[in-house]
Amino acid sequence: MAHPITLAHPHVGDTEVNAAERVLRSRHLVQGSEVAAFEDEFAALVGGRHCVAVSSGTAALHLALRAWGVGPGDEVIVPSFTFGATAHAVVHAGATPVFADITPETFTLDPDAAAAAITSRTAAIMPVHLFGQPADIQRLTALAELHGLIVVEDAAQATGAALDGTPVGAFGHAAAFSFYPTKNMHTIEGGMIVTADDQVAHRLRLLRNQGMNGRYEYEIVGYHARMTDVSAAIGRVQLAALPWRNTCRQANAAFLNDQLCGVITPPLLPGAVHVYHQYVIRHPDRDDLRQRLADQGIGTDIHYPAPVHGSPAYNASVTLPHTERATAEVLSLPVHPHLTAVDLARIVAAVNR
After folding, report:
1. Which residues does residue 280 pair with via DSSP β-bridges, in sequence order?
2. Residue 31 pLDDT
3. Separation CA 42–CA 235 (nearest Å)
4. Mean pLDDT to the nearest integer, 81-85
5. DSSP secondary structure of 49-118
6. Ramachandran region of residue 270, left (φ > 0), alpha (ψ -120 to 50) or beta?
7. Which residues of 6-21 are buried (b: 16+ CB within 10 A; e: fewer)?
8. For residues 86 and 95, what is the distance between their CA atoms, to the nearest angstrom?
9. CA separation for the pair 287, 120 (Å, rounded)
10. Total Cβ atoms within 10 A of residue 167
C-alpha cells in the first residue's frame, strides 16, 4: 500500500532545533530579547503595527478584547462556524457572544447577518479569517464604524493573508494570530496581538505580564500570558520561511482547484490573498467520501463538524442555516507544503474516483 498522506505536517527542522538550543543554553528563557525581536519582525507582516507576543491564540483574542475595554454587559458578534476559542475569548472577557451566520461561499462572517445582530449592547465584532481566507473585512469595519463598534480580527488561521493589498491584521482595532503547530507557521504554542493604538499596546503588555510595568510594580490586574524566548526563537525561524510555505500551499490549492471534480472547491474572495491553512471542499455525501479517502491512506478532517452555538457550552437558540449546512458538508484535504506531486495526484484521483 502507498504511504499515508497526512492532513497536516508540523515542521520542526534543524534550524528550529538549533534556535531553541541556543536560547536554552543562554538561560534567558521568558519574554526577553528573542520575544522582542520576534515582535519587531512580525510587525513587518502587519503594516508596522504594534505586536505583542503572548502564550496562545486564545490569550491573544481574550487580551485584545480586555485591552479595548470589552467586558460585562457587552455583546460581541461572532460567527458560529469556527473554532470554539473565538467565542470562549468573549466569555473570558466577561461579555456575551452573539452568533451570526456566514456567507456560504467563503465560510466567513456575513456582514448582513452581523448588521442584523447589532443591539444597544453590542460593543464589538469579531470576524474570523477562516481557513486562511480573509473575511469581508472592509464591509465589516465600515459597519462597525457606523455603529461605533470595536473590530477584533481573529486571524489565527490567516498569517500572511491579505485583501486588496492590505495584510490581514491591519484592518481592525486589534487582531489576534495563533502559532499552534499545525498553523502555516508555529512557535509550538503561542500567539500575537496586533494593534495600531499606542495606549492599547501598552495595556496589552501589562495584561500579559501580571499587570507589571516593572518588577513587582503592579499597574493593573493582569494575567500570566507571556511567550517564552524558546517559542519566539522558533517563531523567528518559522516567520522567515512563511512566504515560501504559503506559496507552496497556494500552488497545491491551485492544482487541486484545477483537477478536482464532483466537489465544491474553495472560492477566492476578489482581491484576496488566501493562505490555505486548510483546503476545504464541500460535498453532500461528505462522510462517505471521507471514509473512502481514509481507506486509501489519505488523511482528512472536518473543520467543523458542529456549530459552536449548538454546543453544550452555549446551547444558544439561534437559527443559522448557512452555518448548519456547512457543518454537514465540509471536508479538509491535505494542502501542506510537504506534499509531493505524487501525493497531490493521489488525492485528486481518489476524490474524483
Report:
1. 332
2. 86
3. 9
4. 98
5. -EEEEES-HHHHHHHHHHHTT--TT-EEEEESSS-THHHHHHHHTT-EEEEE-B-TTT-SBPHHHHHHH-
6. beta
7. ebbeebeeeebeebbe
8. 12
9. 42
10. 22
Listed residue (87, 14, 52) closest to 190, CA to CA: 52
Of 276, 288, 269, 273, whose CA–CA distance to 353 is shortest? Answer: 288
Residues 255-263 have a mean pLDDT of 98
Region 23-36: what's the mean pLDDT?
92
H or E stretch at 12: none
Write the pLDDT tens digit of every residue in 293-311: 999 999 999 999 999 999 9
- What are the phi and psi torsion angles at 301 (to 5°)? -155, 170
Computed on alpha carbons and rounded to an integer, the radius of gyration of the chain in Å comes to: 20
Nearby residues of 17 by Cβ (< 8 Å), 6 or more positions away: none
CA 86 – CA 36 distance, rounded (Å): 26
Residue 115 is predicted with a pLDDT of: 98
120 HSE (CA, 13 A, CB side): 0
DSSP 95: -
Query: What gap in Å lies between CA 326 and CA 341, rounded to an integer?
Result: 29
- Do the Cβ atoms of 79 and 323 come closer than 8 Å? yes
Chain segment 129-174, per-residue pLDDT in tens: 999 999 999 999 999 999 999 999 999 999 999 999 999 999 999 9
The residue assigned the cell 469579531 is: 126
Phi-psi region of 296 (alpha: psi -120 to 50; beta: other; left: phi over 0): alpha
Q: Name the burial class of residue 323, with classes exposed (0-12), middle (13-18) and buried (19+) by CB atoms within 10 angstroms of its CB.
A: buried
3-class DSSP state of 273 = strand
Please state the φ and ψ torsions of residue 47, each to the nearest 5 degrees: 70, 25
Grid coordinates standing for 5?
498522506
Strand, helix or coil at 119? coil
Task: Answer yes or no: are the C-beta atoms of 136 and 106 closer than 8 Å.
Answer: yes
- Position 65 pLDDT exceeds 90: yes
